[in-house]
Specification:
alpha+beta; membrane; 198 residues; transmembrane helix; 29% helix; transmembrane; single chain
């Protein structure tokens, strides 16, 4: 014996199609400027001065599309990313964490140079360098700093004038030598697991 089929007079309204249309329209409106920005050729994107906090670097770079919660620029073949980070008690640890994030967990073992409260760490296997700059006009107890990463085979050409503008000194030779060993690939390339024959 089969169960009787009931027909309801008052069916609940179906919101699926309308809600989907509203969500898709909102997504298109929110992401259309970013998609448009990404489709522009590099020569049409305006170049801006590279400014990190109160440090003005004497070069112009193309800003990134702003997909991340940090500022970024394309300076030739080098990508510069700036993140304002509160609570930086140990600058070297913050630099190592920034490069470990780029290298997908591989700990950087490159040289470190310090000038005043500014620190730089370079790591050739990662293909990047990290610069820690104290943030201006911040309360000293907050320890807010700019964590700046330079990724790319030509990172030294952008890091050197940034270090010069921040410290008034030339980039140390240990950092320059480390950055000279960066391969021409774009960023860190982790080793793929090898098959084991049993």
């Amino acid at each position: 014996m089969s169960a009787p089929a009931f027909s309801y007079r008052l069916q609940p309204p179906r919101m699926g199609a309308g809600l989907t249309a509203v969500l898709l329209s909102a997504a298109v409106l929110l992401f259309a400027p970013t998609v448009y920005w990404l489709t522009l050729p590099d020569q049409l994107r305006p170049a801006e001065p590279l400014v990190i906090g109160d440090v003005a670097v004497p070069m112009e770079c193309t800003p990134t599309a702003g997909l991340l919660p940090s500022e970024g620029w394309y300076c030739g073949d080098t990508t510069v990313t700036v993140t304002e980070t509160p609570g930086v008690a140990d600058a070297e640890l913050a630099a190592r964490r920034a490069l470990r994030n780029i290298a997908f967990g591989t700990a950087p073992a490159g040289p470190v140079a310090v000038s005043g409260s500014t620190l730089v760490l370079a790591d050739a296997p990662t293909g990047a360098a990290a610069l820690i700059l104290p943030a201006p006009n911040e309360a000293p107890e907050e320890n807010t700093a700019f964590v700046v990463t330079f990724e790319g085979a030509d990172a030294a050409s952008v890091l050197a004038p940034t270090w010069q503008a921040a410290t008034g000194e030339a980039l140390p030779a240990t950092i320059t030598d480390e950055l000279a060993h960066i391969d021409s690939h774009d960023g860190f390339e982790p080793a793929l697991p090898q098959a084991v024959n049993v």
